Amino acid sequence: MGDSLCISHRATGAVLRRRSFITVLPFALLLPTVRVSAQLMGSPLDCHKICVCASNIVSCSKMNLTNIPSALPQYTAVLDLSFNSITRLRAEWTPVTLSRLHTLLLSNNGLNFLSSEAFVHVTKVQYLDLSSNRLHQLDELIFEPLEHLKVLLLYNNCISQIDRSAFSGLLNLQKLYLSHNQISRFPLELVKERSRLETLRLLDVSSNRIKVLPLHELQALPAWIKNGLYFHNNSPPCSCELYEVVARWHLKELSSATDFRRNHTCVLPGPQKEKMAIMDLNKVNLNCSEVTAMDKEAYLEQFLVLDCDTRQRDVKKSWALPGNIPLSSANKTAVMRLDGNLQIGPLRTDDSGVYTCFATSDSFNETLYVTVVVFNSTMNGGLENLKTAYTTLVACLVSVVMVLIYLYLTPCRCACCPGQGLEKNEPQDSLHSSTISISQAHEETEQERVEGGGFPYRHVGFLEIKDQLEQNGRLNPIGEEDEEWQGDNRERRRSDAESVSSVCSDTPMVV
């Protein structure tokens, strides 16, 4: 009986121990999770030992943190976590919304991962510093929640891939720093019309691996964008087109060109891959033409639009006409458009001169000069003159061709020409076949009258036989009749010794 009780007590103890083990096991399994979660979340914010809390500023810089402190106050406006060892920025780094946070500093941390939801709870951030980390790529829509962001620092990373939609949604972004990375493609979509960020006025892609620059698109950008577009210390191939772009930026005194004049380099063709300053291409190597200020040229009756392409976007613009005459509503040929440009026309000769644009703001003044040259002719008149010149040239060529045809291709009607008249071995052959004696002409005429009964077409006109004789328009000075003789079955006709003969002449012979 006692043994059975011991056994029952032992059994009861075993059951209780088994139940206690089952009850404690889940807590034991949850303990590593709690530890990992605490490690991921970071230790609670300590404003006495780890961080410095001054009003709405929380500074935890250079504290060798591996995670962001938890339980950050909701009134935090500036959070400085720079110079630590935070390698991953997860979505849960702040479980609560920090609606007042406008500055987040995470530079020099060795960051290599950004969660796609890392900025969901800090949408009011305006200044984000992610520089000097180890980021390799920027995924699509990574910064989309930051609709109020104005300045984004990403320089000195390892970024080589940027999704085209990575910066979509940043409607208020003004400055983007991407220098000192491994970018090989110029992000043209950020500054190109239709797709560009409307408020962006500084884009720094210098010191990267960009080899191809969209030169035509860059040159077509407004001056206020080009003034803040930095692409020096890259490796594009040297060309005169590249020199022209940089030289024109220098002429307009754009900061992106003038501040880094010696850093705008290109790679010369050849195996050595030697670099040289772009602004020296007009002196050596490629011998590019020197770039000068562009003037406007037009013709009478045309309309012309003069750009006031300033280095600042929001400025007040005004114009002065040649002779430093202020633009007024009384001038009907010059009208200022809504975009600040000046339209002049229909042009007259006295519209030539220097037009001045004044761009002013509270902290900025700029003066632009545009020289206009109006030619003293209309565009249509110039074309007509050109057509007249071509017509004259064509007429001259046709005349030359006709002369050549007349000289070399006109059939020869003379008996002396090959294939014409009598053969040389015939009795009637004569060395001067065009010379016709008067008696011969008379006999032939009589014969033709008898045989043909009419007068065929002839080049020779006949007068009375008794009249004075004339050959080829000249009188016979002797007045003797031609003598005829026969011999050896040959018949010859001899004209007057002093008669003038015309060999192969087209002049009619009159008797």
From TrEMBL:
Question: Where does the record place Basic and acidic residues bias?
Answer: 487-497
Topology term for the membrane: Single-pass type I membrane protein
Using the record, list the residue span of the signal peptide; answer none if the entry has no such feature.
1-38
| Residues that span the membrane, as ranges | 389-409
The answer, when asked if Transcription regulation is one of the entry's keywords, is: no
| Keywords linked to the UniProt accession | Cell adhesion, Disulfide bond, Glycoprotein, Immunoglobulin domain, Leucine-rich repeat, Membrane, Repeat, Signal, Transmembrane, Transmembrane helix
Q: Name one GO cellular component term.
A: membrane
The record's section on PROSITE patterns has: IG_LIKE (PS50835), LRR (PS51450)
For biological process, the GO terms are: brain development; cell adhesion
Annotated localization = Membrane
Please verify whether the record's keywords include Transmembrane helix: yes
What PANTHER family does the database record attribute to this sequence? AMPHOTERIN-INDUCED PROTEIN (PTHR24368), AMPHOTERIN-INDUCED PROTEIN 1 (PTHR24368:SF1)
- Name of this chain's protein: Adhesion molecule with Ig like domain 1
Taxonomic lineage of the native organism: Eukaryota, Metazoa, Chordata, Craniata, Vertebrata
